[in-house]
Design a protein that fits this description.
Keywords: Bacterial microcompartment. This is Ethanolamine utilization microcompartment protein EutL. It is found in: Bacterial microcompartment. It holds the Pfam family BMC. The chain is an alpha+beta fold. It is 36% helix and 27% strand. A 6-stranded antiparallel sheet has the order 1-6-7-8-10-9, sandwiched between helices. The protein has a 4-stranded antiparallel sheet with strand order 2-3-5-4, covered by helices on one side. Strand 9 and strand 10 form a beta hairpin. The longest helix has 20 residues. The radius of gyration is 17 Å and the shape is globular. The model has no long low-confidence stretch (mean pLDDT 97).
Length: 217
């Protein structure tokens, strides 16, 4: 069953070519990390996926990434969205290259899937074929390993994770116990790329079954 895709909007982007030392200290920057790129996104998990991609395409490190409470529907302003991400690098050109990766990933590579016509019920079943430095650190795995990034509303997330773990030879390496800051839940699973894909497919199927029969158990 093909579900309608929900992409993230990158709401605001700014580059700091030469960050002030006092601010650099707050982000624990290394001496060579002189430049920052900052962005906000309407969807946090897509933003995190995009940050990981940036670490694969440019000499940058994710130095700050946080979700906002209650999600983009309760944002603090029109450019706030659901999360903020900051990458650091040795030069403006390097962090700009990282931002290009963020923009491309958010625009075409990573997406939630709408379960209903109103797009009020959605899931994230994304497979990263080769992790960068950010998600591999979050998951406690070696950079370059595959990862299934699975997110859904609270009950669906727990049930779907169980189905995903039973469907393939994968391991749960990071659990996002519901509710997260945005009131979702989920986890990161690792295994071979084919196993991660099978787990993601099982996660999606389990959640679709809940959507059709929410009370039937």
């Amino acid at each position: 069953m093909a579900l309608e895709r929900i992409y993230a909007d990158i709401l605001a982007v700014r580059v700091i070519p030469n960050v002030d030392p006092d601010l650099a200290e707050q982000f624990n920057l290394e001496p060579h990390q002189r430049s920052l790129a900052i962005f906000t996104s309407t969807v946090d998990d897509i933003g995190y996926t995009a940050l990981d991609e940036a670490t694969k395409r440019a000499d940058v490190e994710v130095v700050y990434a946080r979700s906002f409470y209650a999600g983009s529907g309760h944002a603090s302003g029109p450019l706030s969205g659901e999360m903020i991400g900051i990458i650091a690098g040795p030069s403006p050109d390097e962090v700009k290259s990282g931002m290009e990766a963020v923009l491309q990933t958010a625009k075409s590579d990573a997406f939630f899937e709408a379960i209903n016509h109103e797009k009020t019920h959605a899931l994230y079943a994304h497979v990263v074929s080769r992790t960068g430095f950010y998600l591999s650190k979050e998951a406690g795995i070696t950079p370059g390993e595959p990862l299934a990034y699975l997110i859904a509303p609270p009950l669906e997330a727990v049930y779907g994770l169980d189905a995903a773990l039973k469907a393939a030879d994968v391991k749960l390496v990071k659990f996002f116990g519901p509710p997260s800051e945005t009131n979702f839940g989920g986890g990161l699973l690792t295994g071979t790329q084919s196993a991660c894909q099978a787990a993601a497919d099982a996660f999606r199927d389990a959640i679709l079954d809940i959507a059709v029969n929410p009370i039937k158990y």
